[in-house]
Amino acid sequence: MAGFLGDAYLWVKSLHILAVIAWMAGFLYLPRLFVYHCSAEIGSKQSETFKVMERRLLRAIMNPAMLVAWAAGLALAANIDAWSEGWFHVKLILLIVLTVLHMVAARWRRAFAEDANRHSERFYRVMNEVPAVLMIGIVVMAVVKPF
Fold this sequence. Notes:
The protein has 147 residues and is mainly alpha-helical. It has one domain.
C-alpha cells in the first residue's frame, strides 16, 4: 500500500474498525442505560448501580475507543489523501456531530451522577437512535463514496 503507513496500512485500518465497533457498541448502550436510569428512584441501589455502569462504560470503553478511532482514522485519511474528496467532507462532518454527541452524553452521565437529570425516558429513547443514524451515514460515505 502506498503512503506513509506502508505495510502497516491494513493493521491501522483493522485497529480503526475495531475501535469504531467498540465506540458504537458503547454509544448504542449508554442511552439505553439512561432510559432505565430514569425509572430508578434517586438514591436507590439500582440508581447507584446505573451510575457505576454508565461511568465505566464511558470512561473505560467509549472514551478510549473514540480516541483510537480518531487517531487511526486520521492516519488512514492522511495516508490516502482523502481531504479533497466530497464524501470525506460529509463523513468528517457526521463524525464531528457524533463526537459532539459523545461529549453531550458525557454531560448527561454527569447529571445522572449528581442526581440532576433533566430529561425524560422518552428523550433518551430518541437519543438512542441518533448514533445509529450517524453511523449509517458515516459507513455509506466511507464505503460507497457517492461523490
